[in-house]
Write the structure tokens for this entry.
Amino acid sequence: EGSYLTCPCVDPNISTDPAAVKFVADYKAKYNVKPGIYGGEGFDAVNLIAAAIKAAGAPGSDIKAYRAKVAANLASTSGFKGITKTYAFQPNGELVQSSVVIFLYKVVNDDYSTVGDVANLIK
């Protein structure tokens, strides 16, 4: 209780983005709890991978070539709008720095509460 933590994740529960609001509502309806702190990023990751698979088309008989195509599609992702951020990757596979935001959270009543974006808090 009262502890602080940082996370490069966006709490989907406080987002006003319509897609995030829908994700949270659907999640709560199915599981009867709010999504966890990495819930939005997990949702985005699955959708990023699904988009890379869809763009690769049918696998065909050469599964190694297909996997390479999916990996290349994922690596070349740029401007993918998720519910937490817009994703783009550097050649080394890391996220483009502008899409990384660190948030400060505080534990209140055995739950986390968003304090804010660390960069804005230290200004």
Notes: The first helix runs from residue 18 to 31. Residues 4-121 form a domain with the Rossmann fold fold (CATH 3.40.50.2300). The chain has one domain: 4-121.
